[in-house]
Amino acid sequence: MLQINNYSNQILKNISFALKPKQNLLILGFNGAGKSTLAKALCGISPSSVKLFGKQLSHYSSKERTKLINYIPAKLEIFDEYITLGEYLDLSRLHTLLESKKLLKLLAIEHLKNKSCQQLSSGEQQLTMLATAVLHNAKITIFDEPTANLDPNKSRDIFSLLKSGLFQSKIIITHDLTLAYRLGYDVLFIKEGEVDFFGSSEEFFNDSNLDKYFGSSVKMVEEFLVVDF
Question: Is 82 left (phi over 0), alpha (psi -120 to 50) or beta?
């Protein structure tokens, strides 16, 4: 489905891995490790040697690419001060039969439909970006910190949506280890620009691995991930 071989730039070093159809992936790592840089390379925002479904990404037309992969950034940037949430979602609807008004109801943000996007709170912006991902409906969606700025209840809602059948394949960048553990997707851990781990959730979330990457800060306690301050 997706393959990248020996990719390097100013931050990343010899990045190689492959994903099978419908395989979901978590990209983890410390600040500055190159997670978002890798995401942008995977979807073609920056030049790379990525293959999607057996073909070089650069060989697809822009329209074809929109059907295959979509990147959802960590922060919503809207330059039109007048566009409302409802209007923005209508423009985001590309490859789905789902209507934006139904999605507004599903995410419990109907009351924001006529609110200017620039006036949305940071949490409301996160929900807006998730909604655009659903309406875009690419075969692979890359989420950059999807639960950032969300309260616990909304984070739980995002978790439920990510686990639902609304998306085909997901690549999720996150610092939220609880979310990562509960999702149970395969894990790619980047350390100083290099792939330091690539394997299953079960292999990553064990005591020896957690101690290797986080020391005494993160522990497993009776099937729960506990962050010790």
Answer: alpha
Task: Report the largest interatomic distance among the alpha carbons of the chain, rounded to a whole angstrom.
Answer: 52
CA distance 130 to 5: 29
- Determine the Cα–Cα distance for residues 86 and 88; give it in Å rounded to an integer: 5
Q: Which domains does the chain have, with CATH numbers?
A: 2-227 (3.40.50.300)
Tokens of 194: 């290099």
- Convert the pLDDT of each residue in 145-190 to its tens digit: 998 878 888 888 888 888 888 899 999 999 999 899 999 999 999 9
Radius of gyration of the chain (CA): 18
Q: Is 61 exposed, middle or buried (0-12, 13-18, 19+ CB in 10 A)?
A: exposed
Residues 6+ apart with CB under 8 A from 83: 116, 117
Task: Enumerate residues 6+ apart whose C-beta is below 8 A from 226.
Answer: 218, 219, 220
The structure tokens 């992936």 sit at 25
- Two tokens at 104? 């507004």
Does residue 4 sit in helix, strand or coil? strand
pLDDT tens profile 5-31:
888 989 999 999 999 988 999 999 999
